[in-house]
Design goal:
Two copies of one chain form a homodimer. Chain A is built from ten helices and ten strands. The first copy, chain A, is α/β, with parallel strands linked by helices. The first copy, chain A, folds into two domains: 98 residues, Orthogonal Bundle (Arc Repressor Mutant, subunit A); 108 residues, NAD(P)-binding Rossmann-like Domain (Rossmann fold), CATH 3.40.50.720. In chain A, strand 8, helix 9 and strand 9 form a beta-alpha-beta unit. At the A-B interface, helix 2, helix 3, helix 7, strand 9 and helix 10 of A face helix 2, helix 3, helix 7, strand 9 and helix 10 of B. The complex binds nicotinamide-adenine-dinucleotide (2 copies). The structure holds a DNA duplex.
Chain lengths: 251, 251
DNA sequence: TACCGCTTGTGAACGCATGCACAAAGTTGA
DNA sequence: TCAACTTTGTGCATGCGTTCACAAGCGGTA
């Protein structure tokens, strides 16, 4: 895989050793990977607007980060900028895609076709970014065979055969929390090594399986924490003789 | 900090000074706040199971973190454990709720009642955790007045009056990306200071507004990165004479 | 060609988060 | 009452991620 990649590709003057790329990929901090995905989205927008070149300062502004961080992030994947000029947008796009593994399609299976599962199955943003939804599963027999977003729902009991047939590499769990661990176990035994979990439970998986969770209640509670913190600050500022808008009261 | 902490604190025999709470809240790292929300969920489950006491080891296992980290996280909010015994589940729940600001209700407004907006509006997990969905907005006149999850949709033009009437403190953006910034601006001028954004765009907001984003495409791409990394490793291991299952080939 | 101005790429410093390891503090049982 | 045992709370070291600041490198210009 690494061997096929960069060799003789015009921008890279000398071919890099495969081991080098591997080392580099391993070394990219997870936080930087998440930002690279954001940069990629911004850059894709730029391509559509016909922008050919962009400086770190501009891109950083559009991505909402500081420019030093952006350059450091990009340096993890190599040096593809031109000093005094900036980055070629298309070159950057292709390199980020390569590092993120987007040169390959990743088929997705959604398990639990309820409120959320329907929304996910109907969402156009996944296929268009290289994540085709290849299978849907539910335990409800009434749903079996019903097409959602163009794909017929399979019964959960067929998960192993269907997943391997359709080469599913990412499993999305949108079942009630009670069912999540069982579903997860079945996905793992079906050979799925990447899981995106919407159910509010902590999944137990083998080491080689990568899990990411999206927990909306936690997000809400983090926001709540900030509201509370602000309220506390305001209260104590008033106590300290400072009004809510920063004006000193009764000096 | 260490000095203030323990003062006369049976379970909470004497009321703590507001300033103390404020200082402590300010100092909690964001990462710890996110985990506290997870601990809270696990603990709530424990209460339902009738568990009254839990050790850091047990709770850490259930929350998927190591126990030292858990104890450090809990130490940010105070010392409410009993050495040799563990933590009283209910006491811990109430203190985490207090720190997260969950003693107060936080009304939520969802903007953009499409695929995702419907799922969110119908989701029972928010109201039950102290985040009542108080208002829904969409630009589509056909949706105006239609009840979704029991709440009639308002037109986006009424956002300011409805939000202040219903004391909305958290705004959820589930509109197409093109509309997201405009919607965000309207929420902010309506006085909403916390925003949860599902649209794949980087929102620009004043400093005092707290934004959290949920970006599924980014999550997918992070998973994709790990798939690619694994594939690279496997490939290079084979090159290095190690088979995919760790067996040395052609030694 | 030599110089100038601009932007990248990165070494180094800093700060935050994590994990270890243990003293302190409590319980239990004799 | 005391000793043995359990578990918390935290000081400290380590590692990771962020930010600063500047040398190196490139294009443009005379
Ligand atoms: N709806 C939301 O907006 C939302 C938001 C945040 C989190 N969540 C979480 O996402 C999950 C799904 O939420 P929802 O609102 O779509 O719930 P839902 O009840 O509408 O749908 C759940 C679906 O999963 C199916 N199911 C149940 N057990 C199953 C099993 N063992 N195998 C396969 N399918 C099974 C059910 O038949 C149903 O169709 C829940 O865990 C919820 O907490 C939902
Ligand atoms: N559906 C998903 O599962 C999913 C997953 C990830 C991200 N998202 C993101 O969430 C957002 C919503 O996705 P969706 O699938 O629900 O889209 P959708 O097209 O089904 O719904 C969008 C809704 O927003 C409304 N809207 C448009 N402009 C508006 C405005 N200015 N003010 C108020 N309402 C407006 C539309 O009338 C529509 O009802 C998108 O940004 C999408 O990228 C969706």
């Amino acid at each position: 895989m690494a061997a096929q990649r960069g060799e003789g590709d015009g921008v890279v003057t000398s071919p890099e050793a495969p081991a080098d790329v591997r080392e580099r990929a391993r070394a990219i901090p997870e936080a930087a990977v998440a930002r690279l995905a954001v940069y990629l989205r911004v850059l894709s927008g730029m391509v559509e607007q016909g922008v050919t070149t962009i400086s770190s300062e501009e891109l950083a502004g559009a991505a909402g980060v500081n420019s030093a961080k952006l350059r450091k992030d990009l340096s993890y994947i190599g040096s593809y900028g031109t000093r005094g000029v900036g980055y070629d947008v298309e070159v950057l796009v292709s390199h980020i895609e390569r590092i993120l593994g987007l040169t390959r399609k990743h088929s997705v299976a959604v398990v639990g076709i309820g409120n959320l599962g329907h929304a996910l199955a109907n969402y156009g943003g996944f296929p268009s970014r290289g994540f085709p939804v290849a299978a849907l599963f539910d335990i409800d027999p009434d749903l079996t065979g019903v097409p959602v977003g163009g794909i017929p729902v399979n019964h959960i009991d067929d998960i192993t055969s269907v997943c391997s047939e359709r080469e599913v590499s990412i499993g999305v769990i949108a079942t009630p929390p009670q069912a999540a661990q069982a579903v997860c176990d079945r996905l793992v035994s079906a050979g799925v090594q990447c899981i995106l979990n919407f159910a509010p439970v902590v999944l137990q998986v083998p080491d080689y399986v990568e899990v990411r969770k999206v927990d909306l209640a936690v997000e809400m509670q983090i926001l709540s924490f900030h509201v509370a913190r602000r309220a506390d600050e305001a209260a104590s500022d008033v106590v300290n003789g400072i009004g809510v808008d920063g004006v000193v009261i009764r000096p």
